[in-house]
Each structure stands twice: as C-alpha cells, then as structure tokens.
Amino acid sequence: MSNPRPLEEEAYDMSGARLALTLCVTKAREGSEADLDALERMFQQLGFESTMKRDPTAQQFQEELEKFQQAMDAREDLVSCAFVVLMAHGVEGRLKGEDEQMVELESLFQVLNNKNCQALKARPKVYIVQACRGEQRDPGETVGSDDIMMIAKDSPETIPTYTDTLHIYSTVEGYIAYRHDKEGSCFIQTLVDVFTERRGPILELLTEVTRRMAEAELVQEGRTRKVNPEIQSTLRKRLYLQ
C-alpha cells in the first residue's frame, strides 16, 4: 500500500497591496465604535490600506463596494488580497442599511468575484459579516459535535467563478449576533485578538476564533447564551496575513 501524498503547501502571494473596506451601520448599534477601533488597529498591524464608511444606506452598501472594485481594477500595482467587513442589523441573506432598507448579501459578494473583479481574479477575497441571521438564541448543549473534514481536490487550469473567497459570519444561519454596548461584539473583538496575536494560515486562525467564542459565556436578558461564527471557504491555497 503506497503512502498517501502530502498536501501541497502552496500559499497565496501576499507581496502586493492589501486592501480593506469596512461598511458599518452604527445607528442603533451601540458598541460599533469599539469594533471599528479594533478593526482599524488590526488592518494597520497587518499592512492593509483601510477605508471605513459609517452608516451606509442599503444602496450605498452596493455603491461603496462597486467603487472599491473599480478603484482596485484601475490600479497598476499588484493587489494580493482584499477584506470586506460588513456590520449592520440583518436577517439571513440580507443587511439593513442606515435607511432601514435591505440589501442582499449575495449581490454584494458578486461584486468581487473572479468574473467581476479582474484585480482579485484567483486572489483571496475575505468577507467578515457582523450581523444577525435570524431571531433564534442558543442556550448551548452539554455534548460536543463531530469534527468535519474538508478534502480539497486538485484545481484545473481554469478556475470557477466563485473560488478564492472566504465568508466569515458572526453567527450561524437563523441566529442572533451579540454586541456589548461599550466593548463591542464578541465576534469582532475575538477575531481581531487572534488575527493580531497569532501566526498561521487564516483557516487555522479562524478555528481558534471559533474555539474562543465557543468557550465564552454571553449573558443576554439575564440568561447565558452561546454563539459561534460560521466560516464558508472556497480558498484554493493557504492564506497567511502575518
């Protein structure tokens, strides 16, 4: 029986520009400024050119992302990676703008895909979504869940439209995302701590974020709640930020 072939250690080229766009509704979202401060610190430490816009309307979520894409495609230098942070009230698949109108997450995600953004074709696009995805609350369970293994296949010469993308949600589908009035959200604060303190491929860092959040005891309405992020990845290589 032959020995299994080890996984290739190929990593994304991070020698070019790193760009970040943060769109955050602060209205009726106490603690948002603490999250913005933490993100600014993280992007500065990780060498990102960071742009932040407060209180976008639903239409401005779309417009600002399209401007971000157009500016990237107009650059003459190499763009290695882009982060997009979206923070607002929300329901599954949609975010609420400052004007109380809703924008579809899928329409935002499409702006930077391999078809629509040439600068990021085959390069990593990371979306961080701090928003509720429903009204359910998780009191927690006393047993652990099984590990899930994901097996990657060799990629062909052409790449699919939706590869090289990482979606990081603050909570799982259908559930509330928690935010402290002064200290910000458990999700953003934990993510910033791990991304600035630890080294390693981003999916390993996100496993640590999930572990820390799973251990945290959040109190809401006098009751203990549990919350964990959800990570959806179509990355083809290892992504290192440090």
From TrEMBL:
It is found in: Cytoplasm; Nucleus. One of its GO terms (biological process) is positive regulation of neuron apoptotic process. It holds the Pfam family Peptidase_C14. Its main location: cytoplasm. Residues 29-136 form the Caspase family p20 domain. SMART domains: CASc. GO terms for cellular component: cornified envelope; cytosol; mitochondrion; nucleoplasm. GO terms for molecular function: cysteine-type endopeptidase activity. The keyword Nucleus applies. PROSITE patterns: CASPASE_P10, CASPASE_P20. The keyword Lipid metabolism does not apply. Residues 58-115 form a coiled coil. Residues 155-242 form the Caspase family p10 domain. Keywords: Coiled coil, Cytoplasm, Differentiation, Hydrolase, Nucleus, Protease, Thiol protease, Zymogen. Belongs to the peptidase C14A family. Heterodimer of a large and a small subunit, both processed from the precursor; the mature active form is a p17/p10 dimer and the intermediate form a p20/p8 dimer. This is Caspase-14. The lineage of its organism: Eukaryota, Metazoa, Chordata, Craniata, Vertebrata.
